[in-house]
Structure formats: structure tokens, C-alpha cells
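Something for you to look into today, if you have time. I want to see for myself how the chain folds. Leave the record below and I will have a look.
***
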Amino acid sequence: MKLTKTISRSALLLGTIASTTLIAPPILAQDGQTATETITVTARRREETLQDVPLSVSAFSGDDLERLGAVDIVSIAETTPNVTLEVSRGTSSTLSAFIRGVGQQDPVAGFEAGVGIYVDDVYLNRPQGAVLDLYDVERIEVLRGPQGTLYGRNTIGGAVKYVTRRLDAEDPTLNARVNVGNYNQFDTLLSGSVPLTDTFRVGGAVARFTRDGYGENVYLGEDNYNKDLTGFRFSAEWEPTDNLFFRLAYDDVEDTSNPRGGHRLIPGAASGAPVLDDVHDTRAGLNVVDQLVESDGISLTAEWTVNDIWTIRNVAADRSDRSVTPIDFDNLPSGDLDVPAIYENEQFSNELQFLFQDGDLAGVFGFYYLDANALTVFDVLLDNVVAGLNAQTFGEVETETFSFFGNFTYDINDQWSATVGARFTYDERTSRVLRRTYLGGFSEFFGGTGASIATTSDFLGTNDWTDISPTVSIAYDHDDRNNFYFTFSQGFKGGGFDPRAQTTGAPDFNQDGNVTDDEVFEFMSFDPETVDSFEIGWKYQSGNYRHSLALFYMDYTDIQVPGSVGIDTNGDGINDTFTGVTTNAGAATITGLEYEGFWSIADDLASPGDNLSLTWAVGLLDGEYDEFINAFGVDVSNDVVIQNTPDTTASATLTYVTPFREGDLSFSGTMSHRGDSSQFEFPFELLDQEAYTLWNASIVWDSPDGTWQAGLHGRNLTDEEYIVAGYDFVDNATLAPTLGTEGTLIGYYGPPRTFTATLAYRY
């Protein structure tokens, strides 16, 4: 059986820096005065100020990301309301993303993302490798709410967009940065570009990130939560005429960090192994394969400005990735629940856009196509149940989808404008699910000698869906300071097949004594989910103050709820295998508020050139299930919650800038607070994370000509311990194991207190 090479993006390429905050501060003028920064975004596929866009958008400029520092994409969630971005359980490169309570936690093939991740208009189809390090970023935009009538893949929860800088068309550039920190952190980044002719230039970057582990694997004697990543990027831009632009970009990343072992929250049920003192330490004993994440991609962007009204743009991209990772569910030396896994992904996408602006009418319409393959194969060694027992899963999903989309805005007069849009989507998904029982240990995929003794699933199925998703928006510019809007948008996420489900476990739905092929198909598959989102907003800007306020209501239906349960196949009272159970279990109502703002008081300070500014973001969310049908057909909506979504997110950043040695010296501190959140739909006190607050601080000096920058950054200064992901295979009432014999209740934790010194040179 040949493994297909597939998509992941372990780190688009790299940035540098240990970060403190991502909220954009004021820009300092040369004369010492200040002006509120005008951030230009392309959320509606045309350049507009953040103030004028009738959408919930948080934007972070690349200059501020460099000056203040950012670790990776996960850092953005600290200062963006109602957004959760986490490193998925058991990995260092797979992303779990939720916006306003909508997302997808399960990274296996067969499940669509609820939040779209884009790099220069290229949609990343899979979460493997999506924990992106930052490199050469012009800005990052976070769009909250359903997206799809403007570009790319339809995403039901929202989108995170990377926009990278174009190469300098006139002068050579050279950028170098070194980061040194505790845990033996040592990062280097070198990038540059050169114009070869008046119309053609090339650029590239190479980066290396290394760090010792935050903890230790006390059984294997290896670092836990370490980092070892190398990346390369090359791009070329050609402008043969003033109206034509081409950009070819290639990137490659290799991540050889150790697998992340989790922290057992309870003693071993069979061995009595005690809970370790350090939450970043582990006893995970699975080392049958070395962890390796490889990803690369190439894209070609072509843009033709036909005239003052029309622009045609095409973005074609091919991406692939491969992740090999050993995940020790029980996190003990024994083979109680050991899961080595391989993820392979590949995708080809093409997006054709027609953009126009003629007087009072502006808009975009286009066509999007995606052909993707996602493959997952993993063993589940249950050595403590039966010596050498292995429940293997092989799942492969082919996705072919195309969409037509359009979005048009008409300025009725100087104050009122109306926007209408729609997206037609066709999704087709073909899935192969092969589940086999082995004896003798690991399978041939992981160098083992185990032999297959039974096949519990051998399924091949195809399903397709169509959808039309509309959006309508009304904007009212009361005056130069106030902008009010109302937006209705509908989101759609395609259905699929559960790659972990067992066809032999399909129930007799009609109770006629015979399980038909149609009933097996129904058991293995799940339907699309949809959301209707209503939002009203108010954006205000005057002098050195601005804010964005949004209220939203979401009607979320046919929610896909994936999960796995242990099953006893021989009646001895011990679960000796498992089956996936994915249903369109729920309907939920989600309401919330988001308030972001900025204020500076430079004019009130005595010292010329000084500036004091405050940025903040508050998100409040109230979500509850109106219906949640469990695997036994019972409505348990009163017992479940919206997962991975705190009811409160809040942040505040205070920044003081003063002249120093002819340059600028800035001091900033950030408070980031997240309320209580549940890892899964069913709350569990031992695994869920109580409310916590992170404190970060930074000191940065910029030379007067911008050539040199030096900084010191501290994160999580109070050394807060907080869970970001976990596994739960115990009875939540008795803590008895539901799969294996030790009891799997595992937490993965965020970084401890870190300090990083940075030195950068720009030419």
C-alpha cells in the first residue's frame, strides 16, 4: 500500500522573535507628534482602511510584529477577541483553531477545518503544519464570522490571512536577526532580495529555530517541548509592464522536534504510576518512529490590471506535507495505548478573481477549485489488554470541490452603502476506510512485524453536496468618525466520512434484523453543518482614539461532533478496540460581543517625542446547545458546552515610547485573560482549564534610521500553568479506563516563563 505525499505547512517560513503583543500601536512621526495608524486591509478584495470595512476584522501590521515580536500564529489569539488558536495535542506543528465557538479539533483525514488559514490567498486544506512561524509579513488579518463570498474556500467560523511583503523593486535588501533566550533558545534568520533588472527581482530567506525542551521525558531521557526547525523560502517577481505582475514563491520546512509527551493528570490505574510534579515532564515510552514534519509548496500569482475598472487575478498553488509522529496516549513506558501515526496531505488549488470598481459600484466575482488528498494511518497498540494487540486504522480521503462566488457593494449615497454576495459550492468526497486487527505488535507501516488477523472495516464510499451561501450587509457612515453596519452571512462546512468508524459496528437502524449497505453508509458518513450569522457593528475614530464594537448572533445547526469510544469485542469486560462515532449531533445558539480599541496621549506628555498608548480587546460569548443527540440517540444538550471557547477573552497593552540615543526606546506590557474553557463538549473538571491570565513585557530600541533593533522580551512572566489540549479515555465519574488499562487523562500545557533577547539588522 503506497502512501500518498500530502499537504502540511509546518511553518510557512519563519519569523523570529519572542513576542509580547500583537495589537497595533501608534506610529511615531519624525517630529515627535503621533498619529493614529491607518491600517489598510484587503478583507473585501480591495484596499480599504480598517475603519471602513463592515466586518469584524483584527489586523496586525508586519512592522509591529517585528518590533514587538511574535512567536507564531498561536500568539495572535492572546490579543484577538473570541479566538482560540492552539497547538494540537501530541504534536508541535498541528493547529486547532476556533473563532466564535466554531472550529475543528480533530486533525485526522475526513474532517474539514472550521477556520480557514490562508497564506497569500492560498488556503491550507489541512491543519498539519499550520502552526506557522512568521516571516516577512506585511500584515495578518483575522476575519471573524463565515467567509466565502469574497475568495477561497468557504469557511464557517472565520479566517486567518497571512499577507507577505512584496520584494523591493528598486534597491537590494538584507535582513538578519538573532534570538537568544532561556532553555538554550537560539534562532537565526537571514533574508534578502535584489532587483536583477528594472522589471525582475528575486528574494529568499533561510531560518533556523532551536530550543531545549520546557520539560523532560524522564523515561527516554530526551527533551520534551523542544524545537528544532529549519526553513527556506524563495520568491521571484516580474512586472513586464505597468499592468502585469507575476510572483512565483516556493517554501520548504523541516521540523525534527521531539514528539510532545503529555502530563498524566491521574495515577496509572494498573501500574499505580504517580503524577509527575512538572507539568512539562512525561514518561511517554513510545519511540518506534522518530517525529518528522516536512512540508513544501509552490504558488504562482498572476495579476493583470486591464484598465481603471477591471483587474484579473489568478492564484495557482500546489502544496504537500508529511508528518510522522508517535503519540503515547497513556504517557507511560508500557504499550497500553501507543499510537504511532502518519499524516500525508497534498493539494492543488486554483482561484480566478475578477475585481472591478466603477464609480459607486465595486466588487469581486470568481471561481475556486481544490483537488486534495488526505491520508491518515495509525496503529493503536493495546499491549496491556492482550500482548501485541494492535487496532490499526487506514483512512484516505479525496476531496474535489469547486465554487463560484461574488460580492458587490453599491454606494447609495455619501452615507449609505449596500453589499450583497453569494457562493455556490459543490463538494465531493471519496473515502477509503480500512481497519484491521493485528497481533504481534506494530504494523509494517511502522517497521513492526505484526500480522493482520481480522478486518473490521473495509469501506469505500463517495458523497457530494451542493450549497448556496448568501451574505447581505448595510453600512451607514454617519460622519467621518462613525461607521455603523449590519451584516447577515451564512456559512457552510462540507460533510464526510469518519476514518475511524468500524463497519462491523454499524447498527440495524430500522430493526429489521439485517444491516444493509445503506445503513453502513449512514453509519460511516456525516452531513454538512451550517451557520446563520447576524452582526451589528459600530466603528469610531477621532484623533488619537478609535474603537470597533460588534454584537453577533449565530444559529449553528447540524454540528459535526467527532469522537472515539472503546468497545469490547469478546465480552470479557475490557475494551479491546475502539470505534469512531461522528454524528451531526447538535444545534446551538451563540451570541457575543467584541470590543477593540486604541488610545494614545502623546500630546499631553511634557517631553517632546514621548508617547503613551493603550490598546485593548474584549470578547464575551454565550453559547449553548439547543440539541445534542449522543451515540445512543438521547438528547443531552443540558450536559454539554461549546468546546475550546472561553466565555471571556480580554487583553490590554500599555506602551510607552521615548527618545533614546537618537532612536526610540519602547516599553510595553500586555495582559491577556481567558475565561473557563472545556476541552470537549462534555465538561470534565480535571481536564478543563480554569480562567487564567498571562503577563508579557518587552523593551525594544530602534535606531534612528531603522537599521538596528535590539530587544528583550518576556512572556508568561508569572509562570502560569495552563492546559491547551488533552486526551480523555476514562469514565468521568469513576476515572475507570474506557480504553486500555492505565486510564488516559492527559493534559498538554502552554509555554512556561520565557525570556528572549533579539538583535536585528536591516539594510
Summary: The CA atoms of residues 123 and 684 lie 34 Å apart. The longest strand covers residues 451-477. The chain has a mean pLDDT of 88. Helices lie at 62-68, 517-524.
